[in-house]
Amino acid sequence: MADFVIIKEKKFKVKKGRLKINFKLIYEISEIKNLDLIENLTELNLNKNFQISEIKGLENLTSLQILRLRNNNINEIKGLENLTNLKLLDLAENNISKIDGLENLTNLEYLDLTANKITDIKNIEMLEKLKFFGIGRNLIPSLLIHQLGGIKQSGEALNPQRFVEYSYEKKKQLIEKKLILVCPFCGISIETVNQNENCIICKNCGSKYEKQDLKKIAY
After folding, report:
1. What confidence tens digit (pLDDT) does each residue in 164-185 have?
2. If both were cysteines, with which of 48, 53, 124, 146 could 71 make a disulfide (CB 3.0 to 4.6 Å apart)?
């Protein structure tokens, strides 16, 4: 267990569970030596490094409550599965086009995705504790934003829970339209089914089946 990290041969000490290392031109989080050893870390600030393109190397930081990655070059939300205690996630000013990878973050109260490239609001239906949702300066139709209660000039949703409820309803509608089947060989669900084909090929194992051989499952 460590109480400091090393970046380009320079030490940065953890103070009261907090680690702030922004404006250091970090390209990858893996450049930060010892980070995975700081199990008691509660706040990590990597804002404004501009170059970080992927969220990885945080799996062991299960005590983390605050994660700031604003103003970087991140394209995808992932690598957060183990951070179930996270309450604040700041990913504003990146290149994210899809809201994803938040399934396990059920304690999240603050989510900032302002100034990204997001086109649709979905996959936040599990964020029942959400109190702040930054979604302005994206590619979401202004009419939809208005229907969901609008946003402040800063990009903050005036009613975050309206967005959560909308995401839940939209997911429910999509599920109702899907035919969820399971490959009997590998057990992986096959979500995309072409009703005009005589058989279906499992994308996971490549096995070919007649439709009647496949088992329907509840989603």
Report:
1. 999 999 877 766 665 556 666 6
2. 48
